[in-house]
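Hey, I was hoping to borrow your eyes for a little while. No rush at all, and the record is pasted right below.
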Amino acid sequence: MVTFPNQGKIERLELHGQMCMLDTTNKEVVVVLLSGCFTLGDKKFSRVNVFSDPANGFIASNQGVLEINVEQMAEICIIESKSSTPIPLQIIEKTKVRTVGSDNFMRDVFTLVDNDNGLQGLIVGETFKKPGNWSSWPPHKHDTYQEDTESEQQEVYLYKFEKSNGYGLQMIYEGDISDANVEVVTNNQEVKIQRGYHPVVASPSSGMYYLWALFGSNKMFKTSDDPRFSK
């Protein structure tokens, strides 16, 4: 689980034959199904895994307590942010799809929910990358508000890999690239990105997926590329 001072939170849960009570009071909540199935009222959600099936889940804000019923198994990611704006239950169905980059940093980016869904402080999506490919490239950041140029949002990546031996390398840096913090990321690992450029590369052994969640005002989302690598 990763938390932020503004009551922002992202948490991956594995549920087995149980009921999960989800309180949406004073917050906006995004639930993304990663694998398995669950029901919410008369609505059923199912996904074999993130590599086999498209995104599935829902959003709600200030709708009281919702009951997620899991008969067998469900792996879900819950993303929350403080909000006083009511949003009736919405199913995640239509996503914005982009192919970003080229050569060995080409990847498919799916924006699941954002300001268009009524959310005030969250943007959530999924990125898929081929083995050995880079992402968040050219290195970009979004930590300093500059009107019409750069937004200010913190972010979390939640990783999954197609193969059990899959892994990646996550870099985070602000100044000299030689001072970058480099972390090995494996299946189900979360990385909190508060500041700086944050490129990531997948090992050649496995395709990589990461769910990304941006926390902060989502009226604008613009990134600044590292000029040393953006030409």
Summary: The first strand starts at residue 2 and ends at 3. The two ends are 37 Å apart (CA to CA). The chain has a mean pLDDT of 95.
